[in-house]
TrEMBL record:
<feature type="transmembrane region" description="Helical">
    <location>
        <begin position="60"/>
        <end position="80"/>
    </location>
</feature>
<dbReference type="GO" id="GO:0016301">
    <property type="term" value="F:kinase activity"/>
</dbReference>
<keyword id="KW-0808">Transferase</keyword>
<dbReference type="Pfam" id="PF01219">
    <property type="entry name" value="DAGK_prokar"/>
</dbReference>
<protein>
    <submittedName>
        <fullName>Diacylglycerol kinase family protein</fullName>
    </submittedName>
</protein>
<dbReference type="InterPro" id="IPR036945">
    <property type="entry name" value="DAGK_sf"/>
</dbReference>
<feature type="transmembrane region" description="Helical">
    <location>
        <begin position="102"/>
        <end position="127"/>
    </location>
</feature>
<keyword id="KW-1133">Transmembrane helix</keyword>
<dbReference type="InterPro" id="IPR033717">
    <property type="entry name" value="UDPK"/>
</dbReference>
<keyword id="KW-0472">Membrane</keyword>
<keyword id="KW-0594">Phospholipid biosynthesis</keyword>
<keyword id="KW-0812">Transmembrane</keyword>
<keyword id="KW-0547">Nucleotide-binding</keyword>
<comment type="similarity">
    <text>Belongs to the bacterial diacylglycerol kinase family.</text>
</comment>
<keyword id="KW-0418">Kinase</keyword>
<keyword id="KW-0067">ATP-binding</keyword>
<keyword id="KW-0444">Lipid biosynthesis</keyword>
């Protein structure tokens, strides 16, 4: 804890400062992570589609849970990748591989959950509209 030049490395003292740093974190995710941008864009498409299909409250809750879980898992994946790179840099390391592969596996699990939720909620609605 302390100061490095004019760059802060000590703990935030005010809620608003913590909040601004958290916002900066989300902006960094959007700017630097292609997969996060893809999931964010997909989430917006699903939300617009859900508004159009007028899904009910229960369906909204499951849909939002699935979307946020994917974004959260992508965030955790980025944290793991960044921390691993901080430790090992460009060097090959078996534990680095394990950490990165497991983090990517977490994103896959969340994505599978969101696909299942999507199929359960939207397939019957779409089939009903087609009939
Ligand atoms: N330092 C390392 N040591 C061992 N294996 C590594 C290391 N860095 C990356 N890898 C392996 O290479 C794969 C790709 O690494 P990378 O950091 O590009 O992850 P990615 O999942 O492709 O990234 P992104 O989520 O940004 O698309 C990892 O899943 C891991 O198997």
């Amino acid at each position: 804890m302390g100061l490095k030049g004019n760059k802060q490395v000590h703990k935030n003292k005010h809620f608003i400062v913590s909040f601004l740093h958290a916002l900066q974190g989300i902006i960094t995710l959007i700017k630097s992570e292609r997969n996060f941008r893809f999931h964010l864009f997909s989430s917006l498409v699903v939300i617009i589609f859900s508004v159009y299909l007028k899904i009910n409250l229960n369906e909204w809750l499951w849909t939002l849970l699935a979307l946020f879980l994917v974004l959260l898992s992508e965030t955790i994946n980025t944290i793991v990748e960044t921390v691993v790179d901080l430790f090992v840099g460009d060097k090959y390391n078996d534990l680095a591989k394990k950490a990165k592969d497991v983090a990517a596996g977490g994103v896959l699990i969340a994505s599978l959950f969101s696909i299942l939720v999507g199929l359960i909620i939207f397939l019957p609605i779409i089939l009903q509209k087609l009939n």
